[in-house]
């Protein structure tokens, strides 16, 4: 990757030290002192770079690869030319992610916009009743409401809004322009730019003079080590709470309705919409632009394909796709049959012509 000034390369780590950090095996001890400074795809890796391969598709690119080391599983070791140092890992993808974080720690969460952003900016507005632990930083134009509490090591970005009585744990990052209202936030949480947490949910009752607004008096509970993408919205509960479980990762531009409960270590990709009072178990994965109906239950470990429309409950461990969503094998068979019929009709029409 061409260095552009946003993320500078690491000063350098020896390959043996990096292998120990990753829990990987150094294939040849003579490569222990090779120095790694950056990560790169195979196609344009250069000296100082670490790259990784996930399949045999990389074989041709490896022939001309100039990386200082290649990370791969033991099954792909034979693809790597003899001149390239090799790290072997049982999970090369996860190990490469760890390596990237080691070499570029500042890229793991939004950074302060100002070079001297420690402490409380005199251009921020912090209510006198706010309780701050040590090493909290608040950038200019952030607003922190009455009786809010913020834990040690947390950073509040420029222009962020922290509502009254909100509690935010330790070592969190609330990026520039985000707003957090009516919420309790755990430790190690990352909320990216422009996210909206805790606004009222969408609830109305039809009346003789139109739609009557239903009050939303619940909270949003965000557990430890959750990450929430830019411009994502999470509505507070109506009378219960909206909950995001520990370790869950939510992409940009996701909409989560009131009273939704999301389990631990879920992954929800961009532009997903989850309607109110839906419950997701632990380890659920939802592909981009999928829509989930309200008041349904998604079991532990379920995988939902992108652009699916989920209208009913899904048992634990299932893989669903399509509109309406059904077991993935059924969806794929039906799609193949439609394509085959369409192709056959086209050929018949061409023959008749």
TrEMBL record:
Enzyme Commission number, as recorded: 2.3.1.191
SUPFAM superfamilies in UniProt: Trimeric LpxA-like enzymes
Pathway: Bacterial outer membrane biogenesis; LPS lipid A biosynthesis
Residues annotated as domain UDP-3-O-[3-hydroxymyristoyl] glucosamine N-acyltransferase non-repeat region: 33-99
Similarity annotation: Belongs to the transferase hexapeptide repeat family. LpxD subfamily.
UniProt xrefs under CDD domains: LbH_LpxD (cd03352)
Protein name (Swiss-Prot/TrEMBL): UDP-3-O-acylglucosamine N-acyltransferase
GN (gene name): lpxD
Location of the active site: 258
Any one of the GO BP annotations: lipid A biosynthetic process
Keywords associated with the record: Acyltransferase, Lipid A biosynthesis, Lipid biosynthesis, Lipid metabolism, Repeat, Transferase
A single GO molecular function term of this UniProt record: N-acyltransferase activity
Free-text function comment from the UniProt entry: Catalyzes the N-acylation of UDP-3-O-acylglucosamine using 3-hydroxyacyl-ACP as the acyl donor. Is involved in the biosynthesis of lipid A, a phosphorylated glycolipid that anchors the lipopolysaccharide to the outer membrane of the cell.
């Amino acid at each position: 990757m061409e260095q552009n000034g946003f993320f500078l390369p690491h000063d350098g780590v020896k390959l043996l030290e990096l292998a120990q950090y990753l829990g990987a095996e150094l294939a040849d001890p003579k490569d222990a002192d090779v120095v790694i400074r950056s990560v790169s795809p195979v196609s344009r890796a250069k000296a100082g770079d670490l790259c990784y391969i996930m399949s045999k598709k990389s074989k041709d690119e490896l022939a001309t690869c100039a990386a200082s080391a290649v990370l791969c599983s033991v099954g792909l070791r034979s693809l790597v030319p003899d001149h390239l140092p090799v790290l072997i890992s049982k999970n090369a993808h996860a190990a490469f992610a760890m390596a990237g974080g080691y070499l570029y720690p500042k890229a793991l969460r939004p950074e302060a916009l100002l070079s001297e952003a420690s402490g409380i900016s005199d251009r921020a507005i912090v209510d006198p009743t706010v309780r701050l632990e040590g090493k909290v930083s608040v950038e200019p134009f952030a607003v922190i409401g009455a009786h809010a509490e913020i834990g040690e090591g947390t950073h509040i970005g420029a222009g962020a809004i922290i509502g009254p009585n909100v509690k935010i744990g330790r070592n969190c990052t609330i990026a520039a322009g985000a707003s957090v209202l009516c919420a309790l936030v755990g430790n190690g949480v990352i909320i990216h730019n422009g996210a909206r947490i805790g606004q009222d949910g969408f609830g109305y009752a039809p009346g003789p003079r139109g739609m009557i607004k239903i009050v939303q008096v619940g909270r949003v509970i965000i557990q430890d080590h959750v990450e929430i993408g830019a411009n994502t919205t999470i509505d507070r509960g109506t009378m219960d709470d909206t909950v995001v479980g520990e370790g869950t990762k939510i992409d940009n531009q996701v909409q989560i309705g009131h009273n939704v409960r999301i389990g631990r270590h879920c992954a929800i990709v961009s532009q997903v919409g989850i309607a109110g009072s839906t419950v997701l178990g632990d380890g659920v994965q939802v592909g981009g632009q999928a829509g989930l109906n309200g008041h349904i239950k998604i079991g532990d470990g379920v995988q939902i394909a992108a652009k699916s429309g989920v209208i009913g409950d899904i048992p634990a461990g299932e893989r669903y796709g399509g509109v309406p969503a059904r077991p993935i094998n059924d969806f794929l068979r039906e799609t193949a049959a439609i394509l085959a019929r369409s192709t056959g009709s086209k050929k018949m029409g061409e023959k008749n012509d």
